[in-house]
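Here we describe the complex-level prediction in full. Unlike the single-chain runs in Section 2.1, the two entities below were treated as one system.
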Amino acid sequence: MADDKYLTHQETAALSPAEALALAGRARAAARRPAPLPWWYGPGIGASFAAYGAALGQSFRHQWQWLIPLCALGLVVVLAVIVRVAARASGVARLAERGLPPHTFPALGAVVLVAAVAGLATWLVSGDQRWAITAAGAAGGLALWGVISLINRQVKEQTMSSEQ
Amino acid sequence: MNGLDPILHQPTKLTVLAFLSGCLEAEFSVVRDYCQVSDSVLSKTASSLEASGYLRARKGYVGKRPRTWLSATERGRAVLAAHLAALQQLAAAAEAAGAEAGPEEG
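The structure predicted for the assembly as a whole is:
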């Protein structure tokens, strides 16, 4: 088999220290190269937050205080599953980067602002707490989807340019 | 030299461990494609590294399809770091020796 021959050649070939360092450096860089997230990641995260908002709205509406921590727990579990599966979708689970990615705070600020404006506007129009929180969750989820799509597009462009 | 590991003198083992040290874990087929070797060759290489305690193999499923995930152990990462540091010392020493020998030749 050609690959076996390749390996046999590699096994017997003596690498200089510089060649071995270069080989290891390339392999490590290849594993660290960011990969685009799967298409369902953004909608999944967005829908989770929208569902969380809707459930929270119902909890407030019916005064089901016990449901509020359960909603938060459910959101955390669903997000953890989505992140875990998405992180391994490309076949490589990457190491967590130290510190936050660039533009994290402006992106989060925009999401919170969109959710707050949507919730406030709905509350002013309907006067119903349930719909206000539901609207905030849905708008926040949509905004998150948009932010994730933008980040994903940037990663795709970076991947394409590095491949070229 | 202190830090050099004879197991990692083999380029495929070095490449596999270096690739895995750059991530949490990687699927078997991704490592195979990067190293440009056959399934059987990577399987043997991974088994050898696993026997040395440098690599961990985990069986899993994506839907109904079986998948094998490979990851570098703490020991493997430490051995690789020491090996690369020793190689860097060797490369630096060789470069210094070459620089010293250079002017005499000229």
